[in-house]
Amino acid sequence: MELDFKALQPAEYLATFLVSPNPLLLFSVGSFVQEHGLRPDGRKADEARPVTVNTGSVSTADGSALVRMGGTLVTCGVKAELSNPPVESGDCGYLVCNVDLPPLCSPRVTPGPPTPRGQSLSQHLQDTLISCRCVDVKDLIVGQDNLCWVLYLDVVCLCDNGNVRDAVFFAATAALRNTSLPTVDVSSGSPEVSYQQRHPLSLPHLPLAISYSLFESHILLDPFHEEEELSSGHVSVVVLSHLKMGQPDCKLIGGLTKSGPPSLPSQKLIELVHRAQKRARLLADLLLTASGDKKT
Amino acid sequence: MIKAGVLKNANGSAYIEFGDNKIMCGVYGPRDVHPKHMANSSTGILRCRYHMVPYSVSERKNPAPSRREIEISKVIKEALEPAVMLERFPRTAVDVFIEVLQADGGSRCAALDAASVALADAGIPMRDMVSACAAGKVADTVVLDVNNEEDQAGQADMPIGYMPNLEKVTLLQLDGIMSPKEYKECIETGIKGCKIVYEIQKKALNERYFGDDHK
User: Can you quote a single GO CC term (chain B) (predicted)?
Assistant: First the structure.
């Protein structure tokens, strides 16, 4: 009976869970519905699913990570290759990001070229990493002799159970932190690469995305895929986390997108940004614990 | 090591670590065929996609499917078809998707092992499991399960896919040079390897459905 209702009227099914028990709050001026209702998986509107992260398990990559957010599973690998710097501005290297959503990840994906969704995720990740100087391409120069590193950051979604963007950013951040580059000795004329002696990347801060979906008048943190499909709008906040010294500092905002109806008052957006900073702090703590860098 | 039922979206799934190979497989089906003209009115169809992630090999691989991946996709599909009872599902498709996260020789065999477990995990009726293992010739000796280093320097590589209960071979390929005697020895060694893998495949399904962390 319940499953018939869910199949025939999915939006009403979701809304039934979220209805506030206090009808007066629905009409209060200048504020949206207080999120007292629960979602079909038992979460409150501002609760996220459990997150696990595992780094360094792929030995063919120079850095790797596997992230699970609820049922969503995303893996990321970084590979570094030597090349020549670009002709126009010869003092930097390259960062190439790619996000792949293969047909494995969802029954709705068919084999074929990258979809607009995958391409826009790739672009968002690339733009954020470059414009927020998370990876400084000037640091990727090797010696003085027209040699630089190309960093390929490939993210693959193995299971899309909603909120892939957050998982993609978290996996990319974890993989970059896990990355180490071989040492290149250019002193003797021809470059000698030592794969055993490695040094980590210089990463001043790293981006963490926190996304909400807008369903009717509700703002749902970390939507799972059915909520995402039924939602009309989305908000994503990118928080830059400074992960050194074992104490994460998550204050700077590296990006903010809001798309689709309903429109939100600016006060609400500011509140969402504050919540995102808190959530970023939790994710950063988790990453530090996973990589053994947490200050106890 | 094989673990079944690891992906929430796929109808059936399996993750395998075979030496340094790390491969994830998901199965969807039986489901509607799109485009419709590919559907077969008397039997279901099996489709397979083998794909390597760019960082799975020592030199970064372009994400676009290469000729080798398309060949392996075809080979794995043909190795599974004799085992899957497709005639029970006319006008539908069973899709097998394989993502290789880390490769170190013999990945098509490891992928086939994971695909069989994923098909069983999806509840798709099969005549038998398909167990695969490669044998080969390195330094004039017949050996079992050649890794990447051995494959580069070796003399022959023979992946074998085998149905252990029906005692039938569904995949057999050979790259390299062998005498008829070595060939016979190689097949026998390979089949022994397949039988060992079969026990691990059964264990994975047992743990998934009858184990302590039964979901």
Answer: cytoplasmic exosome (RNase complex)
CA dihedral B53, B55, B57, B59 (to 10 degrees): 120
Compare A192 and B109 and report the one with higher pLDDT. B109
> Looking at CA atoms only, how far is residue B54 from chain A in angstroms?
7
Q: How many CB atoms lie within 10 A of CB A267?
A: 10
Chain A, 97 to 136: residues with Cβ < 8 Å from chain B are 98, 100, 102-107, 110-111
In chain B, what residues touch A154 (CB-CB under 8 Å)?
53-55, 60, 63
pLDDT at A171: 97
Is B139's pLDDT higher than 80?
Answer: yes
Query: Which pLDDT band holds residue B88 (cuts at 50, 70, 90)?
Result: very high
SS3 for B15-81, per residue?
EEEECCEEEEEEEEEEEECCCHHHCCCCCCEEEEEEEECHHHCCCCCCCCCCHHHHHHHHHHHHHHC
With a cut of 70, say whether residue B212 has pLDDT above it. Answer: no
How much is the ipTM here?
A: 0.91
Distance CA B2, CA B110 (A): 10
Distance CA A68, CA A46 (A): 19
- Contact criterion met (CB < 8 Å) for B54 and A71: no
A58: nearest CB among B34, B49, B102:
B102
User: Could you say which residues from 32 to 91 on chain B have a Cβ atom under 8 Å away from some Cβ of chain A?
Assistant: 34, 49, 51, 53-60, 63
> Could you say which DSSP state residue B126 is in?
B
* pLDDT, greater one: A21 or A129: A129
